[in-house]
Amino acid sequence: xxxxxxxxxNKILKELYFKDNLSCVELCVKINKSFPIxxxxxxxxxxxxxxxxxxxxxxxxxxxxxxxxxxxxxxYLVSVAMDQFxxxxxxxxxxxxxxxxxxxxxxxxxxxxxxxxxxxEKIAEVIDSSGIPKEKFVGVGIGxxxxxxxxxxxxxxxxxxxxxxxxxxxxxxxxMPVFIDNDSSLIALAELRFGAAxxxxxxxxxxxGWGVGLGLILNGELFRGHEGFAGEFxxxxxxxxxxxxxxGKAGCLETxxxxxxxxxxxxxxxxxxxxxxxxxxxxxxLELACDFIMxxxxxxxxxxxxxxxxxxxxxxxxxAILIHLLNPQKIILSGRGSSAGTIWLAPIQQALNEHCIPRxxxxxxxxxxxxxxxxxxxxxxxxxxxxxxxxxxxxKPLQVLQET
Amino acid sequence: xxxxxxxxxNKILKELYFKDNLSCVELCVKINKSFPIxxxxxxxxxxxxxxxxxxxxxxxxxxxxxxxxxxxxxxYLVSVAMDQFxxxxxxxxxxxxxxxxxxxxxxxxxxxxxxxxxxxEKIAEVIDSSGIPKEKFVGVGIGxxxxxxxxxxxxxxxxxxxxxxxxxxxxxxxxMPVFIDNDSSLIALAELRFGAAxxxxxxxxxxxGWGVGLGLILNGELFRGHEGFAGEFxxxxxxxxxxxxxxGKAGCLETxxxxxxxxxxxxxxxxxxxxxxxxxxxxxxLELACDFIMxxxxxxxxxxxxxxxxxxxxxxxxxAILIHLLNPQKIILSGRGSSAGTIWLAPIQQALNEHCIPRxxxxxxxxxxxxxxxxxxxxxxxxxxxxxxxxxxxxKPLQVLQET
DNA sequence: GTAACTTTTTTAATTATTTAATAAGTTTAT
DNA sequence: ATAAACTTATTAAATAATTAAAAAAGTTAC
Lengths: 404, 404
Description:
homodimer, alpha/beta, 5-stranded mixed β-sheet, DNA-binding
């Protein structure tokens, strides 16, 4: 029974991570226990100095409730966001703030047998140089591209370990729990817990980047599918353009929508002499080039806007399919491409007007993420806390406390 | 607390409806209560004669467990399956058998303000003529085409009641609980509880009929989306054929896949002189024509097989999208068209080979439903039992018992 | 054929949870 | 201004549920 108590104790901590300043009544609803029990659990947590009182919330017509939040400097998370070439590592606290500068390293994943080893070393390095004692870390969350089996902890595309669990392997080396997930799923998780999808039940989070990823929030939870591969939006067959995709097939959504295509288009336009501010486009760095075009579009450069309109319309065609199949209440545009902002909205809406049954999309809203570039890091941190109750016996918090 | 006891009592009855001959241990796992409590609840149900012992199950290495099943003739369900023109009404028992012949009435839904009234009268008639006392009915389940909001009990396409709840209205007239859902969803529910999707977590049930419907089973449950409209497979925009669809748009999946198209194709082939047994196709009745072509295909008529191959390939294109987005473990072909049987498999598999990333579909199986034509009726009955715990205070079962 | 091991069932005792009664702090209505 | 209504907090008592121990019924291995 001591185990069960721990479970609900941890649930409270988890809830307070996802939302600060909760009252006892709110917590009691969230953990689905009676009021007296919740009171006792909170009392214990306050006594252990893991939770603090944060004053009274405004009255809703009765006595004002005492609210609670997580104590500072008691627990930390390691958050890793990888793409095919660059990996970012950060340490975050329970208030979702970075406690050390985000470490950015070049780490190419394709055909790189050393990648996993380097990743582990870098993570260990960041932890060490933070100066935070290891016992204070809850765990490591990692977002990565490719086919990720969340449960087994395997990535079938990169970081292969002869089909052995990556998470177990890293966990043994680093000495704390490790969780991995697909990058788009983690962006969706970030939106669900801290962004525009907060509290919503059915939301599609489109990750516009070098491909077009998708994180599905269904029934208020991240949906991963049978093997964890759900959300392969990039490669749904929708065009008859004959363009070869990176996946080996032709006509994938990605072939008419990716940011790479926009950069291609910009280059072509320049060389064919189009009048545009894009003539001063930096050609060597994809990331810079992309940001440059997005800025130009936001500033009203007609050619840049045109490029996004075309890609946006095609994304809209894909979104129309999503709406027909899953009837979401919200579509969120997130990921790198979301920096282009509201420029996406009109062409996507246009595509919906043309390709959706009105009844289906009239109650579906379309929004741009407000989480910005750090969505994946936030999601990776949230992934750890998402699993918090299941982490067996987090290293004696009492001890941790005495050190502070 | 008496209410809560009732909840778990009803959960046991529900579980026994979905699966007969369960042992006490199995039930105790399913309702998530301790063994002693489950024993007591079952004892009560046996004492009330709602549940009977059905002997011992084979040993699994220890004492043989007593198994339980629902008593016969104690509870009944009214099951209604509607399409745009024909409505079937049946009375089913807890063993999933029809206790009266399936009533089939012509009831056109489009632009028919009388439809709801007629439906109610017919349901009442079937109940009356069954001779079963009203108290023995648990409720009425209705499957219907169109945009159905399950929670609100509204169909936005047919049986309009100025946006008032259809279920409430029928319930008041008939005097028992009423539940409605989309026809494809109910077919999926039937597959989930009694068919090929039993026990599976993520399954797509494709309802091949005059359109191409879809019932989504996600995380082991029927998924309905934000407003209940999920599964509009028929109208996802995937073709550039310019063919106008019934929904007003062009290029919908339906325009290249529906059984209507196959009948069209058959007629054209005949008039252009193709050598085939289809020359004796009955032209006046769609249902008969469709069955005729399916039989011919099963018997190996080359032209008929060709027709299904073409449609099947296009369905496969749609299924490829489903697999990319939702990573299901199984695809089930159900509905009227499933009578064509294994003829569908090869062309659909062919489309998957061409349009799916291998990793994604290699663990996805493709099956033909074994539930046959009655899937929707079975699903409608299951819909009532799906909600069984929530039905407040089913009319005193003790009284019902005394009458038997 | 018997002992050791399984699984189910029964019973009793402990433990945990909810309910209910009470008090305290705020808002709203009269 | 004051009473009524409402929300939150505290405490004690009643109740419900789980755990644990033991018995019963079978199976498997030696």
